[in-house]
C-alpha cells in the first residue's frame, strides 16, 4: 500500500532535490510537496500537480496538508538576506523578510508542523537542521540578530518531546558538488566543529543530504536518531563511498 509523505520547504534548494528524487525513485511513497509560492514551484518543477500551497504559520493550512499523511519531512528554514555589503572594514549586514525571521520560521513554523503532524497521526518526522546549535555565540546567530541556530535547536527538542518517531539531521556546510562520491560521517554535539576529524572541512554536498533524508524515510534504524552530518573530501585515501545505509544509521545515537 502506497503511503503519503508531506515535504515542507519543497521549493528550497535541498527541499526541491528531495521532492524530485522521491518522485522519480520511490514508488512506496506518494509525495505531497508543500510550498508558499506557486510561482516559484512552477519555475522549479514546471508542473505544480500534487502540490499543496500554504503557510507554515497557518495551523489551518497545515491541518489540510497533513491529512492522511504517514510521514513528514521538514525542510523549511529562515533565509537571511544581505541588506548592506561589506565596506570600509565593516562586515555585511543581514535581515530577514517579513514573517520570515528564525523565531517565526524555525521555531513557530516548525512547532506548528509538529503539532499538525501529531494531530494527523503522522508516524515519522524527518527534520533537517544545521550544526552549531550548541554554541549560542555561533556567527550564524548574529545574522540579522536572528539567533537562527537557537530557534532551530528549540524546535528539535520540541520534536523529540512530541512522542512522534523522529530523525534529526544537522548538516554541515552545504556544497553544490556531485553527490554519491564520498564517505559520510555522523557525529554528535558539534564535535566536528570543535575537532574536525583529520582537519577536514565540515561540509557535505547538498545532494548527499537529500539522499540521507530519503534513506531515513525508509530505514527502521533511522528512527529516533539525531546526528551531525558531514562528508570526507572526494577521493580521499582510505575512505569509501557510503552505501551501507543500515550500518550508517546504526552508528548514529538517539536524542540531542
Descriptive notes:
By secondary structure, this protein is α/β, with parallel strands linked by helices. The protein has one domain (3-250): 3-Layer(aba) Sandwich (Rossmann fold). Helices cover 35% and strands 22% of the residues. The chain has helices at 13-25, 38-45, 59-66, 102-120, 139-142, 148-161, 191-194, 206-218, 245-250, and strands at 3-8, 29-35, 52-53, 71-74, 81-84, 93-95, 124-130, 165-171, 173-175, 184-187, 203-205, 225-231. It has an 8-stranded mixed β-sheet, sandwiched between helices. A two-stranded antiparallel sheet has the order 5-6. Strands 9-11 form a two-stranded parallel ribbon. Helix 1 crosses helix 8, helix 3 (59-66) packs across helix 4 and helix 4 (102-120) packs parallel to helix 6. The radius of gyration is 18 Å and the shape is globular. The two termini are 33 Å apart.
Amino acid at each position: 500500500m502506497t503511503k503519503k509523505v508531506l515535504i515542507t520547504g519543497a521549493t528550497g534548494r535541498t527541499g526541491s532535490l528531495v521532492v524530485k528524487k522521491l518522485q522519480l525513485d520511490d514508488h512506496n511513497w506518494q509525495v505531497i510537496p508543500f510550498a508558499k509560492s506557486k510561482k516559484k514551484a512552477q519555475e522549479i518543477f514546471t508542473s505544480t500537480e500534487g502540490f499543496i500551497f500554504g503557510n507554515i504559520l497557518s495551523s489551518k493550512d497545515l491541518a489540510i496538508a497533513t491529512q492522511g499523511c504517514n510521514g513528514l519531512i521538514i525542510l523549511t528554514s529562515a533565509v537571511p538576506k544581505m541588506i548592506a555589503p561589506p565596506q570600509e572594514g565593516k562586515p555585511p549586514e543581514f535581515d530577514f523578510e517579513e514573517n520570515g525571521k528564525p523565531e517565526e520560521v524555525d521555531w513557530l513554523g516548525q512547532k506548528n508542523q509538529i503539532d499538525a503532524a501529531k494531530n494527523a497521526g503522522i508516524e515519522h518526522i524527518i527534520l533537517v537542521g544545521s550544526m552549531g546549535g550548541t554554541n549560542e555565540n555561533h556567527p550564524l546567530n548574529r545574522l540579522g540578530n536572528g539567533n537562527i541556530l537557537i530557534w532551530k535547536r528549540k524546535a528539535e527538542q520540541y520534536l523529540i518531546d512530541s512522542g512522534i518517531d523522529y530523525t534529526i539531521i544537522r548538516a554541515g556546510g552545504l556544497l553544490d558538488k556531485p553527490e554519491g562520491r564520498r564517505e559520510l560521517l555522523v557525529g554528535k554535539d558539534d564535535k566536528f566543529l570543535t575537532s574536525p576529524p583529520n582537519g577536514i572541512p565540515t561540509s557535505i554536498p547538498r545532494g548527499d543530504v537529500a539522499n540521507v533524508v530519503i534513506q531515513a524515510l525508509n530505514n527502521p534504524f533511522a528512527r529516533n536518531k539525531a546526528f551531525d552530518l558531514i562528508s570526507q573530501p572526494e577521493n580521499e585515501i582510505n575512505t569509501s563511498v557510503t552505501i551501507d545505509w543500515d550500518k550508517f544509521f546504526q552508528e548514529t545515537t538517539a536524542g540531542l
